[in-house]
Amino acid sequence: MEQYRKNLSTLETDLKAINKQYNTFGFIRFLVFTVFCILGYYYYVQQNNLFVFGLLGLVILFIILIKKHDKIAFKRALINEKVNINKAEIAYLNQEKIPFENGAFFSNPSHPYTFDLDIFGQNSLYQHLNRTSTFVGKNNLAEKLSTNLSSIQIIENQNAVKELTDKMTWRHHILALGNIKKDTPEKYAKLIAWSKMAPSSISKIVVFLSYLSPLSLLVSLALFKILNLPFLLNIASYIFIFNIGLVLNHLKQIKKEIADSDQVHDILMQYSLILKAIEEESFENTKLNALKQKLSTNQLLASTQIQKLSVLVSNINSIGNVLGAAIMNGFFLFHLHNLSRIYNWKKVSGQLIEEWMGIIGEFEALNSIANFSFNNPEFVFPSLNNDLKIEFGAMGHPLIFKEKRICSDVSLVNQKFIILTGSNMSGKSTFLRSLGMNMVLSGIGAPVCALQANVHALPLFISMRMSDSLSDGESFFFAEVKRLKMIMDQLEKCVSFVLLDEILRGTNSDDKRNGTIEVIKKLISKKAIGAIATHDLEVCATTLLFPDYLVNKCFEVEIENDELVFDYKLRDGICKNKSASFLMKKMEIIG
């Protein structure tokens, strides 16, 4: 928090200075324009050619001021975004709000664990992690949270995140560059589709004419000015008309490029600046350097290539300005040259765009995890094993701030599966979510909410949040049975980590009890690791049959001064106290 406040103080000072500079240059531009108008008036009145030189000088000065002003405007926008970034982090750590996109777009109820664990959506793990600005970054982070990585990939991510954690200024710079203009899935999809389209070509004769014709026109005009021969002006006019006709003959090709690129040109410069920031940064980590090296192909830097494409796309889209296009094409075949350059660009770099965008996405996702690590310095990076051991020391829910967080030790080493009991509101579901989310964090190379952790990265399968599906005509019970079937089918393939919360709620108590016991037996036979929460205490007797595999854990509730008191601490054994009858009596629902 303190570092964000220091950053904010420095940035707000910088913003005041740049605002002053911005306003000063704006005023100077206005003065130059005013003087230009005055000189123009005196030239019109006096017809003195000396004023022409003054007017030309003012035009040049005005163009220089515009470019300078634009640079200052961009710098101002960048600093302003960095101010907003630090304000957002302060608001987040003060628990005022979570001002980050929640990834609801990626929610998938049929996914093995993301829907049940609230990985996406409001107040989700994704929302707490997300510090991405581009769509490819958001998508990469979502993929990480939805995919099982190998132990090697996890360790690579851990090491990369550790280095990026200390690069706050650089991380904020990347995020600010992306935030200046908002990226969208549509723009990204349009760019990738455009890059994969096979480039057309312009005939060699047309290419030859595209240089010869403008040169001939300029020579004709120069000779006319020198020799004052009228037929030379006629020749120049014919060439001018010929040039426009040549462009019109390729108008279909030009429009095709416009149709495929008009939604992406404004975002290309943003991509190029992010790529340049990656190219210029020094890294020690192997993975980060490997990603960086992919941005340099055949001595061509990705940032330079994307910047060139941005200019070309902007140029070719200017054909919509009819008067300007007529003049530029009549004299220089401007759009024909740009069309040819776009074709050549696509031949050289078109197939690399998706890879370059993927590298942006990877850095943004890793930066998000690094930001999570920076904000939670007490969290630890888990060590990994291949021995089917899962241990967390003082594990808590990663999305609950430490002032309110209750932590518990969890060991799935000797006994592999927990039968969890406890009354409603005692903390069973929160514990299961804590365990599940920390397994997800372990699996992406992030630090976990624990003082110590040793994890075997296993596929996750969760059944905690089932609902009736009216669109599919499915009942709650059938949806849950389908989920259990999916879990059992997965366990046929490999050992997995399984969390179940009060299964088979859509049937009678005897059927539910017997079904739950049989499910537990099947999980044991398939060597599943994890936990199941239940209200049925008779299910806990199953541990007597499998003492080497099952262990009973519980959350208790106490009644003090006629009030329910929950301490949310995980205990050994079976829950003894009951809260439902007491609560209903207290609320006068029953006598």
Highest CATH level, the class of the largest domain: Alpha Beta
In percent terms, what proportion of residues is strand? 5-15%
What structural class do you assign from the helix and strand content?
A: alpha/beta
- Number of individual domains: 3
The CATH homologous superfamily of the largest domain corresponds to P-loop containing nucleotide triphosphate hydrolases
Largest sheet: 6 strands, mixed
Output the CATH topology of the largest domain: Rossmann fold
Write the CATH architecture name of the largest domain.
3-Layer(aba) Sandwich
Task: Give the assembly state of these chains.
Answer: single chain
Anisotropy-based shape: elongated
Query: Largest sheet, order of strands side by side?
Result: 8-9-10-6-11-14
Low-confidence stretches: 467-473
User: End-to-end span in angstroms?
Assistant: 52 Å
**DSSP helix count?**
21
Roughly what is the average pLDDT, rounded to an integer? 89
**Rg estimate, integer Å:** 33 Å
In helices, the fraction of residues equals: 55-70%
Number of strands: 14
List the helices and strands and how they pair.
Elements: H1 2-46, H2 50-93, H3 125-129, H4 135-146, H5 151-165, H6 168-179, H7 185-196, H8 204-227, H9 230-249, H10 251-261, H11 265-280, H12 286-293, E1 296-297, E2 300-301, H13 302-317, H14 322-332, H15 334-349, H16 353-375, E3 383-384, E4 390-395, E5 408-412, E6 417-422, H17 428-444, E7 452-455, E8 460-463, H18 476-493, E9 497-501, H19 509-525, E10 529-533, H20 542-545, E11 550-555, E12 557-560, E13 563-566, E14 571-572, H21 580-586
Helix pairs in contact: 1-2, 2-6, 4-16, 5-16, 6-11, 6-16, 8-9, 9-14, 11-13, 13-15, 14-15
